[in-house]
Amino acid sequence: MAILEKVDKLHRATAWRGDIPITSRYTAGIAGEKFFREIKDNARIMGTYCENCELIYVPAAMFCERCFAELDEWVEVDTRGTVFTYTVLFRDLDDRPLDPPAILAYVKLDGSTGGLVHYLGEIDPEEVCIGLEVEAVFKDAPEREGSILDIEYFRPVEA
Amino acid sequence: MTEKIAKFPGVYLRESDFRDKKVLFNEWNPNAQYAWDAGVAIGRYLAELKEGRLVGVQCNKCRRTVIPPRNFCEWCFRPMDDWVHLPDIGTVNTFSLCYVTWDMQYLTDPEIPAVIDIDGTSPAVGIMHKLGEVDPQAVRIGMRVQAVWKPPEEREGSILDIKYFKPLEG
Fold first, then answer.
1. CATH topology assigned to domain A29-156
2. Across residues B155-162, what is the average pLDDT?
3. Which of A47, A98, B105, B168 has the most crowded Cβ, counting Cβ within 10 A?
């Protein structure tokens, strides 16, 4: 019974190899588009204001999550804020060591109810604490391309 | 659109909007590599194709010879009994003239996919391939055809090691 062979050595296993070409494009949407354009063109962080709930959404949203009202009142928020929570990363997404380690933080922006998840820079991991006052460091205008990474990182506010 | 909705809300985007960077977007190409385990039967089939041979299997109980090879006879569920080398000659069982590619490009010269009954196999057993070197209008069911192989150095253990089947001369 020749056909009852088994593959007993791994190198004898035959496999059909291929690659599925997939390209995904993610657009920021109507509110996101305007939010990122302001960062790119004016180095400003904008939010949307809900009159009813008295909330300022950052990143800007089209609808209020609480009352579902359409939001079209745009307000500029401070590029300063406070560290709400943070974590120190010693490995990247592919499990390679990160040296120096990266610091990811959720920064609540002054004058808004929202905030941004971003990197902290110009600070040692040991010195970071919850409640730390930080400010956004923007890339130079020609280098900005309408991405959240147009903000390089947040750094401690000089006392 | 639907009966109740004349126009969906939102912004319609064209390919040119992305090309001209009118809209902000992120692009991502996921790494979607895969390896499909060919198994014993198809594994040998592909290895033999690389050598320029067709191989099938036979079931002695059902007196059936089939290609491509499989481990079990789907009639009696016994393991197949033996490997059989088969000629690269066969008969067109059915075919189609295809003027559109898989990604919807128009073709002036049609592709001709066909099911080919390989000589020496049982009825209702065929392999799918393309026909070539033939006037599309001259293709007929029952036509005798032979495989045209790639040169040995270009073969890679794929069904495409056969370029196409062409009408048998004479």
1. OB fold (Dihydrolipoamide Acetyltransferase, E2P) (2.40.50)
2. 94
3. A47
